[in-house]
Design brief:
The chain is 32% helix and 23% strand. It is α+β, with helices and mostly antiparallel strands. Among the domains are: 112 residues, Alpha-Beta Plaits, CATH 3.30.70; 167 residues, no CATH class; 111 residues; 57 residues, no CATH class; 45 residues. The radius of gyration is 33 Å and the shape is globular.
């Protein structure tokens, strides 16, 4: 063990309360530089008049006090002691410094020690890539609007204007920040550079015009004074449901719009994406030149006239367009109208332009029926083809064809005639089969096209339709799928809302709640909340539907659709209801929304359904068969015949049937077509028993990969460090060799399933057989290198270490009582190139992720039943015993058998190295929240939003790994056990409705510092679409401040546990330079030219002369369709 660090602490009082920790460090830096002190840091509580200085070396702290410490004034007394004189002044204020009576934080000293080590390493700074200098303008006006072309001249039309005083427009490191005072407080707009398409500089008057991809991030900081605090508390006391637009003083409130006295900014925020900032003429030219130096921004000079007459405002335009949509809804098919509304809603077309196109479409409809396009799935789509000159697919292509309006974009691109001509061209390509959707017939059986909607803090965006795995609801109404939509609640960039304790999201969550309760119109239909599955709840997605008349002429609403699935009366917990009809609620009904690509008609197979009792412990408190039933060989074979070739060896299926969910394992003793289900599988009564839906199949073993939590517990069980390094070094050796030999590359690409649909690995192998080296092409080479680099990074930064002697399998129960209390049966197919292990009477490690409690990893004896025993007919699963006081799955992170997968390790070094084994956790069962009545719609939508707001699963997991590293006892420490229990509560939150008690987290020691293995990976960028380059740290700017921090700024220390050692053992940049990224001489013939010569020779040899030039235009169109398809995948439309 290294000697303990001593360090030195200094207490400072009379520090200006306005200083933050970062600004205090900036103020102190010149004094530290004067004393040549490098290893120090400061802590400054928000709003407090004191701070703490910590020095790594005691001599540095003493030198600082010798120079700047307080000194007694001779003969002067104060409160019974000597009056002090300060020798340090900050912001004109005397700062009194003295040695602290508390010992320095030992972890903070480790942070300083790591900083010193990193500072003494060879510098990696890219001197050319200096941090961009801040450019700060005085903002005198702000407006949002849109570009239009009046008489073919680009013109800006302001839709809303804000008069601002003392405003600031600050171009920081990677974000433009606009702030100005408001009657409610300080308004702050954050506009990341990645969302700025173009900055146009206009000199009359001095203005910046910003073309944005998405609306700004809007924050409100309330005035910080006692009167506001008193007003806030008094108003809150008047109402239990108080929800003021005024945030609590000192807390930033995320807003969905910029407040305005007259106009509602929220009505147009998603369409008026041109922001104009009027700036002060002072130093205008010099600041603009500095702004042009920012390589992250596209800056253009152009005097943009501001429209004052002859223009159309967005508010009126949207109102007129929505009225036109309502009028056209009875004439124009929904799928066609949807795309036009999406173009307007998402800001691609002005409302007036889209309205003109709709009116022209009405006048051009025809009753001639063109040829049906391959891939049309609904009668609705066929109708759009039969009556109108172009289809919804032709309109959808406009998303990739419409440019941003701007100084160098031609006005004709937005002309109605030009767009109409483009639509006709698109339709022609579709009719010729050049732009059909790239989806195979097999995939079409399992997937369907679904409309998708994104709800963000500011807007609603319409996307799709896109391929989506079928579920029970969609399968019931195959001709009315357009009446269902998948709704994603997310931030503007499509990611989850980022949790920040300093920012309140109450306003945003209220907006989400209103949308869930009220629904929204799309192309003449009103879509309202229908439900969500357990997995979609965690991904913050729900299903909406609009009412329709089905094929039997019956009116379908969200209530009738759900009630047909089963009887859900009497449920009084919102968390147990994953759907929402008005008066009746179901238990785990969200399984109707679970993705089930395969469905089998049991009636057609003459299947007999039997209900069998659960297997329980003697005292009845434990259920050994929780979530698992059985299936006969005849029925299993019939099901597998309907699945893909790779799944036809499965003996265990994850299923949904009627109101049941769970696993079915093969029972070879059953005769005929039989399925047996247990009470633990039945979640509600349902008459919908005809189809057996398949979620997954245990068709092959899943490779076992370690993770941080698993490694930490195994370390606490005394598994030797050498075993972890052996596994990591083996994987590193494999990764280093991947790009060395083409055959290694092919095997790697195939295992990783890279571009599997296009046969990428086979393509590389075929090139090699023909004598062509794929490395001669920069793009192909970069694809392989990127995938290898990803694996290296997962190994270093996530500790994703493959285990050769281990496997991950579905869990089922021993139906025949063969296994003893402490025994398991492990069976799986041979892995390619591997050997089947002898697991007879061997001790193995069994666990399940996520494992946080030290008892989540257990040792058991693996046995093999004799030949001919029914258990021997199973494959690719772990079979648990039905004997003993407690079932093993429940001991492993609270697992069960309804589809959970388990990790097994039989490596003798790891198994024999486990000197300690801990008791498993046994948390009491938590009853779901009972609200005392049947759940109503508002209860369900309220729970969904509350779950979004309070789900702390990730936060708890990170805190656990930090505490486990800090404490010598590791995961066995009481604080880690408490976090493990809280994590279990958080996992069950979506089922019980009972959130984690955050007061317990507050009671834990604050985790200000993190182990070095949690540090973010250095950024790597793709340059010129072919070259991957690591981003070297840039030279820090002297003017850096809080506005340069896009997230929390963590401090890291050097971990002395195995995770830290494994992390530091991998030098990803060296591996990249020496082994992955090969400097290939690409001079000589172009790979694709050589390949083309070969193909032409083969064609002439086998087919005779082929005149291919005549088909060149068609080939280009096919390629364009391919690029278009992948473009939509990338942008998520």
């Amino acid at each position: 063990m290294p000697p303990p660090l001593i360090g030195f602490s200094v207490f400072m009082r009379n520090v200006p309360t306005t200083l933050t920790e970062r600004s205090l460090e900036t103020e102190l830096s010149p004094f530290m530089d004067g004393l040549r002190i490098k290893d120090w840091t400061c802590e400054k509580p928000h709003g407090k008049p004191f701070g703490i200085l910590t020095f790594l070396y005691r001599k540095d702290g003493q030198n600082f006090l010798n120079k700047h410490g307080q000194q007694p004034i001779p003969g002067a007394l104060f409160r019974g002691g000597p009056r002090m004189r300060a020798h340090l002044t900050l912001l004109g204020r005397p700062i009194f410094c003295m040695e602290s009576d508390k010992e320095p934080d030992s972890t903070l000293l480790r942070v300083l020690q790591l900083n010193e080590e990193q500072r003494n390493q060879p510098p990696e700074y890219d001197e050319k890539a200096k941090e961009p200098k801040h450019v700060v303008f005085d903002a005198q006006g702000l407006s949002c609007g849109h570009y239009d072309y009046l008489k073919e001249r680009l013109t800006y039309t302001p839709d809303i204007q804000w008069r601002i005083q003392r405003g600031i427009a600050k171009f920081a490191r990677d974000t433009l920040i606009v702030s100005f005072p408001h009657s409610l407080g300080q308004i702050r707009l954050e506009i990341p550079y990645r969302t700025i398409h173009e900055v146009v500089i206009s000199g009359r008057p001095p203005s910046l015009f910003l073309t944005l991809w998405e609306p700004p991030r809007i924050l409100l900081l309330a005035h910080e004074n006692n009167e506001d605090e008193l007003l806030f508390m008094n108003m809150k006391s008047l109402s239990v449901n108080f929800n003021s637009s005024l945030p609590r003083p000192g807390v930033r409130e995320r807003l969905s719009k910029i407040p305005h006295d007259v106009v509602d900014h929220g009505d147009i925020i998603g369409q008026s994406l041109i922001y104009s900032i009027t700036i002060s003429p002072e130093e205008f030219a010099s600041k603009i030149e500095r702004l042009r130096e920012n390589e992250y921004l596209k800056v253009t000079s152009h005097n943009v006239p501001v429209a004052s007459f002859g223009c159309s405002y967005m508010v009126e335009g949207l109102a007129s367009f929505k009225a036109a949509v309502t009028k056209c809804a009875q004439t124009i098919p929904f799928d066609l109208l949807y795309q036009f509304q999406a173009l307007v809603q998402n800001g691609y077309l002005l409302p007036a332009t889209a309205q003109n196109l709709l009116l022209r479409l009405l006048s051009n409809k025809s009753h001639d029926t063109p040829t049906r396009v391959g891939g049309a799935e609904t009668a609705e789509h066929e109708a759009s083809l039969a009556r109108f000159p172009f289809s919804s697919h032709a309109v959808k292509k406009l998303f990739s064809q419409m440019p941003f309006p701007g100084p160098y974009t031609e006005a004709k691109m937005f002309d109605t005639d030009e767009i109409w001509s483009l639509l006709e061209t698109n339709e022609k390509e579709i009719q010729q089969g050049l732009a059909r959707e790239l989806i195979t017939e097999r995939a079409r059986q399992n997937l369907t096209m679904v409309y998708k909607v994104q709800v963000t803090p500011t807007r609603i965006m319409f996307n799709g339709p896109e391929p989506e795995a079928k579920n029970r609801i969609l399968r019931k109404f195959p001709r009315h799928i357009g009446y269902f939509a998948r709704i994603q609640f997310c931030d503007e960039d499509g990611q989850d809302l980022y949790f920040n304790p300093k920012i309140s999201l109450d306003n945003i969550h209220s907006r989400f709640n209103r949308i869930l309760d009220d629904g929204f119109p799309i192309a003449g239909r009103l879509y309202k909340f229908l439900g969500f599955s357990h997995s979609s709840l965690r991904s913050h997605a729900v299903w909406f539907m609009a009412g329709f008349v089905d094929d039997n002429k019956q009116l379908r609403s969200y209530a009738t659709v759900i009630l047909e699935l089963g009887d859900f009366r009497g449920i009084r917990s919102p968390a147990r209801c994953e759907y929402c009809p008005p008066k009746a609620i179901g238990f785990s009904i969200g399984q109707a929304f679970s993705e089930t690509p395969i469905a089998v008609d049991l009636k057609e197979l003459n299947t007999r359904i039997e209900k069998i009792p659960d297997v329980k412990s003697q005292d009845g408190t434990r259920v050994f068969s929780d979530g698992v039933g059985t299936i006969s060989s005849e029925l299993l074979d019939a099901v597998l015949d309907r699945m893909s070739q790779t799944s036809r060896t499965a003996t265990c299926l994850q299923i949904r049937w009627a109101g049941a969910k769970g696993m079915l394992s093969l029972d070879s003793t059953l005769k005929g077509s039989v399925m047996r289900v247990r009470d633990s599988m039945l979640k509600f009564d349902s008459p919908d028993t005809q189809n057996l839906e398949i979620c997954d199949a245990a068709n092959k073993p899943i490779p076992l990969v370690l993770n941080r939590q698993m490694i930490k517990i195994l370390e606490d069980m005394r598994t030797p460090e050498s075993w972890f390094f052996k596994l990591q070094n083996r994987e590193l050796s494999r990764l280093r060799k991947i790009t060395a030999i083409t055959e290694n590359t092919v095997i790697f690409l195939k295992r990783q399933k890279i571009a599997e649909q296009m046969g990428f690995s086979q393509f590389i192998r075929r090139l090699h057989k023909l004598g062509f080296d794929y490395k001669k092409d920069a793009f192909l080479c970069s694809v392989v290198e990127a995938v290898v680099l990803r694996e290296v990074r997962l190994l270093k930064h996530k500790s994703r270490i493959p285990v050769e002697h281990g496997v991950t399998l579905f869990g089922v129960m021993d139906e025949f009582g063969y296994l003893g209390d402490e025994e398991v049966f492990i069976t799986f197919d041979k892995q390619q190139g591997g050997s089947y292990p002898n697991l007879e009477n061997r001790l193995v490690i069994v666990t399940r992720s996520p494992a946080l409690h030290p008892g989540d990893i257990q040792l058991r004896t693996a046995v093999v039943p004799p030949r001919g025993h029914p258990l021997r007919s199973l494959s690719n699963c772990i079979v648990f015993s039905q004997k003993g006081k407690r079932d093993l799955p429940s001991q492993l992170s609270g697992g069960d058998l309804d589809g959970d997968i388990y990790n097994v390790i039989w490596d003798p070094i790891a198994v024999e190295g486990c000197k300690l084994e801990f008791e498993p956790a046994d948390y009491p069962r938590v009853a779901p929240l009972d609200i005392g009545r049947n759940v109503r719609a508002e209860d369900m939508t309220g729970f969904f939003v509350k779950f979004m707001a309070t789900d702390q699963l990730g936060l708890i997991a990170v805190k656990h790994i930090i505490f486990a590293d800090l404490h010598d006892a590791g995961s066995v420490h009481d604080e880690c056990k408490l976090l493990a229990e809280m994590h279990s509560t958080a996992v069950d939150y979506s089922k019980t409705g009972i959130p984690v008690n955050m007061d317990k987290i507050s009671s834990l020691k604050r985790t200000r510092y993190r182990p070095d293995f949690l540090a973010p990976a250095p950024p790597a960028n793709i340059v010129d679409k072919t070259e991957i380059q690591f981003e070297a740290p840039i030279v820090p700017s002297a003017e850096a401040d809080e506005d340069d921090d896009s997230g929390p700024k963590h401090k890291f220390y050097k971990s002395d546990k195995v995770l830290g050692k494994l992390y530091r053992a991998i030098d990803e940049k060296k591996i990249w330079k020496d082994d992955i990224h090969l400097n290939i001489n690409r001079f000589g013939p172009y790979l694709w030219d050589e390949l083309m010569v070969h193909i032409i020779r083969q064609c002439e040899k086998n087919l005779g002369h082929v005149e291919w030039r005549g088909a060149l235009d068609e080939a280009k169109s096919i390629r364009q369709a391919y690029v278009f398809f992948h473009y939509y995948i990338l942008i998520g439309r």
